[in-house]
Design brief:
The protein is mainly alpha-helical. It is built from 20 helices and no strands. Helix 2 crosses helix 12.
Length: 377
């Protein structure tokens, strides 16, 4: 794609930048803005990114052990009977759920490249793998991170996280079923002649003794966790820093802006106040600032997780919010930043708009369901 070196959009962007910096100058002051920008990014890197990376390393090692010693295959066997009635997908789809839950959204693409796996799907079912996988992306990392915040909140968050997982599960069904309406109309109901994957009764393992395989799986899984941790750094530092700076005001209103970390111009709470009655009714949020989490999840779940410690420090979050965040964080899990690439890899880029629309409703449903389940239990 090529454009002129200077075009109308160049002029629009320059006007936008000038207007933005004028607004910041009038509100925070240029020096305070840049000090806050750097201080916030630095604090997020040290106190949030490395914590998430540590969680990713541990969960990566754990999930690698589950795959190495066949536990994941056992889970696959036990859950297959549920997949067809719930998602109207072949039983092997559960492998996509497991792989993305233990890692991240794109993990399902590796399965989609396996012809033995894909031969089990009818043509209209193939694009549904994108929404199915995205619904469970980073599930284990999100769940363990939320549980770990229980000490800071002096609350047992395990029940809330379980409810959040249930909400994400129901949201995934809504997302996949909605998307299937479009794919059936566009691609038709074409059967495939044979199904190869169910004939595979063996799994690949690492060579060596039990202990050697154990250690290798442990270390290889940990290495994948490091890669996930490094991969979320741009999202956390760029997106979270921006979101923080449009969520919170001065640290001490009596002193004004001091250039400290997490100061900013509270635009999101202002907008949240306008629709807070609706947000509270649907999700049970206790404060308008909390709208920042689901909005950030659209681009990066890792970046959204970085907001949680700050919410806890401000004492504006409770167990219900954790349940809703877990559900929406898993279901949306950065889908706006991965959906286009994933649909392209699957070969259905022209259906991306429908996939995103369906998944938007799936994520909203996940949060609403988690809220009402929490109230009920």
């Amino acid at each position: 794609m090529h454009k002129k070196k200077s075009s109308f959009e160049t002029l629009v962007f320059v006007i936008f930048l000038i207007s933005l910096f004028y607004f910041i100058e009038q509100t925070m002051g240029t020096a305070n803005f840049f000090k806050t920008l750097m201080a916030t990014a630095h604090d997020l890197l040290l106190n949030t990114v490395f914590f998430i990376m540590a969680v990713a390393v541990l969960t990566g090692s754990f999930s690698s052990l589950l795959f190495e010693f066949g536990v994941a295959n056992l889970i696959d066997f036990l859950l297959k009977p549920l997949v067809k009635p719930l998602y109207n997908l072949p039983g092997v789809s559960v492998m996509g759920i497991i792989s993305t839950y233990f890692s991240d959204n794109p993990a399902i693409i590796a399965l989609a490249k396996d012809k033995r796996f894909m031969n089990n799907f009818e043509k209209w079912q193939e694009p549904l793998l994108c929404n199915l996988g995205t619904s469970f992306g980073m599930g284990l990392i999100v769940s363990t991170f939320m549980i770990a915040q229980g000490n800071r909140m002096n609350t047992n968050l395990v029940p809330a996280v379980i409810i959040g997982n249930i909400g994400a599960f129901v949201g995934s069904i809504i997302s996949v079923r909605m998307f299937s309406i479009y794919t059936k109309k566009r691609l038709g109901n074409v059967k495939k002649s044979e199904q190869l994957f169910p004939k595979e009764y063996y799994r690949e393992t690492r060579p060596g003794s039990f202990m050697e395989r154990f250690l290798e799986a442990l270390l290889d899984g940990g290495k994948s966790g490091v890669e996930i941790g490094l991969g979320i750094i741009p999202g956390v530092l760029v997106i979270s820093t921006f979101v923080m700076m449009i969520t919170f005001g001065p640290s001490d209103p009596s002193k004004g802006y001091q250039g400290l970390a997490y100061e900013g111009i509270p635009i999101l709470p202002y907008l949240g106040q306008k629709v807070f009655v609706l947000i509270k009714a649907l999700f049970g949020f206790s404060n308008p600032e909390l709208i920042a989490f689901p909005l950030t999840s659209l681009g990066s779940t890792g970046a959204a997780l970085a907001l949680i410690p700050k919410f806890i420090d401000l004492k504006i979050i409770n167990a219900n919010d954790i349940a809703v965040f877990t559900a929406m964080g898993m279901t949306w899990s950065g889908y706006l930043s991965t959906h286009v690439a994933m649909m392209d890899e699957l070969g259905y880029r022209y259906l991306t708009g429908k996939a995103i629309l369906s998944h938007t409703f799936g994520g909203l449903s996940a949060g609403i369901i988690a809220h009402f389940l929490y109230l009920f239990f």
